[in-house]
């Protein structure tokens, strides 16, 4: 089924080139279907790239979706044109009277900051509090997961000496949780972050279940018992070249950065990395939409 997006969203043409069904707003209005309403709080600096990555995964679901975008009003993006934000994004003040079936909170490259030092932390707290009553289920990604665990459960992050950076093998801690229905017993996920969380602290909270982890990358997927919140510490939405672009950027800045682990073939930066995580990324999003959003949300929001 298609995803409904604004008629002129740049990501739409890229997705059409990849044979992903995207429906114009004008066509969607003619269909007598109640699509799932998904809102994405996009905290990544290159917002248009993240839009394409997430819409690609959402568009692989058999459900019809109506997608909207949210950004912090208290932070001015330096990497996305203001006109793009004005045209396609809203703020919490503009949507807080509405209810949504699902919310996605993306990562942000600010892991080294204390949460309280983030310029839009108070606004993010307002959004996460609003989600308790106005959203059926929220998916938190990377820094968004660290922030959500801290806000909802008081779980602290800690900064690492080196960046956790590469494509890592993951295993299931339980196959009984619906978010990993159909998953292989091992699968790969990219990670790119300077902060982590303590496994024992998560295990001490009855409402949380560790669903998947990695020997090298640590805890990956955590779910609340009621399915209201899903937390993933990696970046399953990443393109094949996303880590490569980050590596080149950091090298050009003069940073002493190591090669991403298990990423470049033969550790040769001239060889194109292989995309090895798309299947499970698609399954993750489909499971979230089906079991935690569609099956749980009321028909009349």
Topology:
Elements lengths: L2 E3 L5 H7 L4 E3 H4 L7 E6 L5 H12 L6 E6 L11 H7 E2 L1 H4 L4 E6 L15 H14 E7 L1 H11 L3 E16 L13 E12 L1 H5 L4 E7 L3 E7 L4 E4 L9 H11 L25 H17 L7
Parallel strand pairs: 1-2, 1-4, 3-4, 3-6, 4-5, 6-7, 7-12
Antiparallel strand pairs: 8-9, 8-10, 10-11, 11-12
Beta-strand proportion: 25-35%
Output the structural class.
alpha/beta
Question: What spatial form do the alpha-carbon principal axes imply?
Answer: globular
Named CATH topology? Rossmann fold
Number of helices: 10
Q: What's the CATH architecture?
A: 3-Layer(aba) Sandwich
Averaging pLDDT over every residue, what do you get? 91
Primary descriptors:
single chain; 301 residues; alpha/beta; Rossmann fold; 12 strands; homoserine O-succinyltransferase activity; homoserine O-acetyltransferase activity; acyltransferase; MetA_family; EC 2.3.1.31
Concise structural overview:
This protein is an alpha/beta fold. 31% of the residues lie in helices and 26% in strands. It is built from ten helices and twelve strands.
Please describe what this structure looks like.
The chain is built from ten helices and twelve strands. The chain is an alpha/beta fold and 301 residues long. It has one domain (3-294): Rossmann fold (3-Layer(aba) Sandwich), CATH 3.40.50. Helix 3 (47-58) links the parallel strand 3 and strand 4. Helix 1 crosses helix 3 (47-58). The longest helix has 17 residues, at 278-294.
């Amino acid at each position: 089924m298609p995803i409904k997006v604004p008629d002129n969203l740049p990501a739409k043409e890229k997705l059409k080139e990849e044979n992903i069904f995207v429906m114009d707003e004008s066509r969607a209005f003619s269909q007598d279907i109640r699509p799932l309403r998904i809102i994405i709080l996009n905290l990544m600096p290159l917002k248009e790239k993240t839009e394409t990555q997430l819409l690609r995964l959402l568009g692989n679901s058999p459900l019809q979706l109506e997608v909207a975008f949210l950004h912090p009003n208290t932070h001015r993006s330096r990497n996305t044109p203001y006109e793009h934000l004005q045209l396609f994004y809203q703020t919490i003040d503009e949507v807080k009277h509405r209810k949504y079936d699902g919310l996605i909170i993306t990562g942000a490259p600010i892991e080294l900051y204390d949460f309280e030092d983030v310029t839009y932390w108070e606004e993010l707290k307002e959004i996460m509090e609003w989600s308790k009553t106005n959203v059926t289920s929220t998916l938190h990604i990377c820094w968004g997961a660290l922030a959500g665990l801290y806000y909802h459960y008081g779980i602290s992050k800690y900064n690492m000496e080196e960046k956790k950076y590469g494509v890592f093998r993951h295993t299931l801690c339980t196959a009984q949780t619906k978010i990993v229905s159909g998953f292989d017993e091992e699968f790969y996920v990219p990670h790119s972050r300077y902060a982590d969380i303590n496994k024992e602290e998560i295990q001490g909270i009855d409402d949380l279940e560790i669903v998947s982890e990695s020997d090298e990358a640590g805890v990956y997927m955590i779910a609340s018992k009621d399915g209201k919140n899903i937390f993933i510490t990696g970046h399953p939405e990443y393109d094949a070249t996303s880590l490569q672009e980050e590596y080149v950027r950091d090298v050009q800045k003069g940073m002493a950065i190591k090669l991403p682990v298990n990423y470049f073939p033969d550790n040769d930066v001239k060889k194109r990395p292989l995309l090895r995580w798309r299947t499970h990324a698609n399954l993750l999003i489909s499971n979230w939409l089906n079991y935690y959003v569609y099956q749980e949300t009321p028909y009349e929001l």
